[in-house]
Amino acid sequence: AGASGVRDHLKIPAQFSVIGPDKPILALVGGDAELSCHLNPKRSAEHMEIKWLQSQSLNIIHLYDNGQDNNNVQMDKYQGRTELVRNDIKEGRLALRISEVRATDDGQYLCIFNEGPLSEETTLELQVAGESQVRELRIRLECSSAGWYPEPQVLWRDAREETFPSLSKALSQTADGLFGVAASVIIQEGSMGTVSCSVQNSCLSREKISAFISISG
Question: Would the pTM count as exceeding 0.70?
Answer without folding.
Answer: no
